[in-house]
Amino acid sequence: MLKLAVFPYEPYVVIEPRGIDSYSYMGSEMKILETFSQYVNASISPVINQADYWGEIWNNWSGSGLMGNLVEDKADIGAAALYTWEFAYEYLDLSKPTVRTGITCLVPAPKLSAGWLTPFRVYSLEAWMALIGTLALSFLALYALNKLQISVKPQLKSKHHINQLKGKLLSKTLMSVSKPFVMQSITNKEMAQGNLAKYLMGLVFLSTLVLSTTFDSGLATIMTVPRYDNPINTIEELAESGLSWGGTQDAWILSINNSLEPNLMKLVARFVAHSEANLRKYSLGDQFAFGVERLPNDNYAIGAYIKEDVIQNYHLMTQDIYWEMCVVMMRKSSVLLTEVDKFVLRVFEAGLISYWQNEAINLYA
Questions:
Q1: Which terminal Cβ of the chain has fewer Cβ within 10 Å, N or C?
Q2: Residue 204: what pLDDT?
Q3: Do residues 341 and 97 touch, judged by C-beta distance below 8 A?
């Protein structure tokens, strides 16, 4: 008899009671173990520790959860999204990989941007600064040129007349520069005099032609595609958001615990392990992110605490935090390792692992 260390975790392991000491098995890794037992002509008995999930291994060769059952010889073979953890290899044997999985997060869905901000999102901050700088330089250059022309005009003998012109110069220059940028025509009185001033105004007109075209195109784009405030799609954005994230156990961060990458260090520090009841409470709010697994064929492994009534409030990150390979684990120096490796490679090559995974998702999702 093969004793299987497992716990229910869709779509890897699905166990349904069918009577006294009788179970129905489903899921990609549970079917690997069940089919392997048939291959070696052995019966199976599940050893389930639902409370401790993946568990821990301690230095005295004891432990808790699934891995504890293996290291203490309470089970012969185990699987349920077990990764290639370095610390586990000191105590257990790891099989060939069964499937690749990416760890990402369900984060609170971003909110639509305020409508009055829409025109300001046409350009980036740098582009707006360049636009303001262009306006300011045009204004200063035209103002200085007009002021110089007034001062050197020989026909202006009256000091009072010169002061009147200088008083109107500021508003005239401001209107001459700003009107083209808002697609308004300039009157003859507002038009700058002199060849040099006309060349300068020609540059202003060319600038406004380019800017108005790009602004119209950009505005049409953002009016078509909704814009959201601070969406979280990458590791950097999650790290900078300040959100805490978590799961049922710190097994979610075992693969990146010793990482020296700054963003991963921030995420490890903000990871919190909670019970399913507490995670369910957090899911009703919008200040917490949840670890999920991105599997092949656009499938996902999501905790049971994420229910249909809250899923619309969350958004799936497009980037994985990290990725891992799932394995089957056995006690150290197990005689089963060689046969398990051969069997895993054969069922993977035949596409059975993907088939069993899709089957479990279609039946239990």
A1: N
A2: 79
A3: no
Higher pLDDT pick, 123 / 7: 7
Rounded to two decimals, what is the model's pTM? Answer: 0.73
Residue type, 164: Q
Question: In this structure, are 122 and 213 located in the same domain?
Answer: yes
What CA–CA distance (Å, rounded) separates 197 from 96? 77
- How do residues 278-310 score in pLDDT, each as one tens digit? 999 999 999 999 999 999 988 999 998 999 999
Mean pLDDT score of the chain, rounded to an integer? Answer: 87
**Which whole number is the average pLDDT over 228-249?**
92
Phi, psi values for residue 12, rounded to 5°: -75, -50
From the list 28, 29, 23, the residue with the least C-alpha distance to 43 is 23
Asked if residue 58 and residue 38 are part of one domain, the reply reads: yes
* 243 and 304 part of one domain: yes
Sign of CA dihedral 298, 299, 304, 307: positive
List the beta bridge partners of residue 288: 244
Whether residues 171 and 266 fall in one domain: no
What are the tokens at 204?
A: 């202003």
Residue among 9, 1, 94, 16 nearest 303 (CA): 9
Q: How many helices (H) and strands (E) does the chain have?
A: 11, 15
Q: Are 85 and 324 in contact (CB under 8 A)?
A: no
Residues 141, 219: one domain? yes
Range of the domain at 11: 2-99+326-363
The answer to whether residue 354 scores a pLDDT higher than 90 is: yes
